[in-house]
Amino acid sequence: MSTYTFKMPDIGEGVVEAEITTWHVKLGDKVSEDDPIADAMTDKATVELTSPVSGTITKVGCEEGDILAIGADLVVFETDGDVKIEAAASTPPAPQAEPKKPKPTPAKKRAPKPEKSPATAPISRATGARPLASPAVRKAAREQDIDLSMVSASGKAGQITHEDLQAFVASGGRDVRPSSGYVKRNGVTEIKVTGMRRIISERMSASKRHIPHFSYVEAVDMSEIEALRAHLNKGRAADQPKLTLIPFFMRALSKAAVLWPQCNATFDDEAGVITQHHGVHIGMAAQTASGLMVPVVHHAESLDIWQIATEVLRLGEAAKSGSIASADLSGGTITLTSLGP
């Protein structure tokens, strides 16, 4: 028997670390060569990692949601061979590193568990809610100068009854009976942000920090475009893409970006350099089961309206199915987001 350590592989150019979003194996599992063992997500894509050997899992390098550096220990196998596999020896040893936790938010102390209220404690209604009571009860309360918000309710749907009012008076204004009012809740729930949600939160935070935000609203009569779209879609086969408004917007955006290159540019605030891009690579926001993704239509300036429609359809389907390539998620120079009708 021998052991084989599978290190985090290099899964893309320029990638130095990846988040393990899903484990397909656990300690003690027996796997065969090429069986899936984990899903690793980078800034560009999610990649399924497969086992390089057959054997038994004796150690996993991290938990789901942890980030591992390329070359760090991912899985240790116990194999049947007496000699260690050559691939293991050929891999240069990487310094043992503890798995990094996602860094968007600092560690927070856990809130103490909420103490259970005694059985005799009054149940308060929501702050600011108007007490429920009949006109007769309200009149009696006014005559006795009693604030109904201080009276616990035992009636149907949290209504204050005459008996509730009398009990309040009898207690000297200290109503301690249980009621059917609303319950005050304490404590917090902490949810670990992993996978696509972590990437989205990091990108949105960076966007707010580094990009000036402004809004501009312009009303446009789209009647002629809609008529043209209906005309062009007429007679299209079922397996051919149909024109939505997105290809028209992308075509217009690509022409404008060529005329106004300062809009098709990126700014490096650390280096103090503006880079104007000659190619127009339009990112399009796409909602998927994993969250928001931004596939890129590369060189939109060289595509006609039908080619753009075909590419939009291809990228949208690939994003939703999870099969999109990392190259289709990178290189954007300008982004288009459709808010719908």
From TrEMBL:
Q: Which GO terms describe its molecular function?
A: acetyltransferase activity; lipoic acid binding
Q: Tell me the segments the record calls region Disordered.
A: 89-135
- What do the Gene Ontology cellular component annotations say? cytoplasm
User: CDD domains in the record, alphabetically?
Assistant: lipoyl_domain (cd06849)
Give yes or no: UniProt keyword Transferase: yes
EC number(s) of the enzyme? Answer: 2.3.1.-
Provide this UniProt record's keywords sorted from A to Z: Acyltransferase, Lipoyl, Transferase
List residues of the Peripheral subunit-binding (PSBD) domain.
132-169
Oligomeric state and interaction partners are given as: Forms a 24-polypeptide structural core with octahedral symmetry.
Q: What is this protein called?
A: Dihydrolipoamide acetyltransferase component of pyruvate dehydrogenase complex
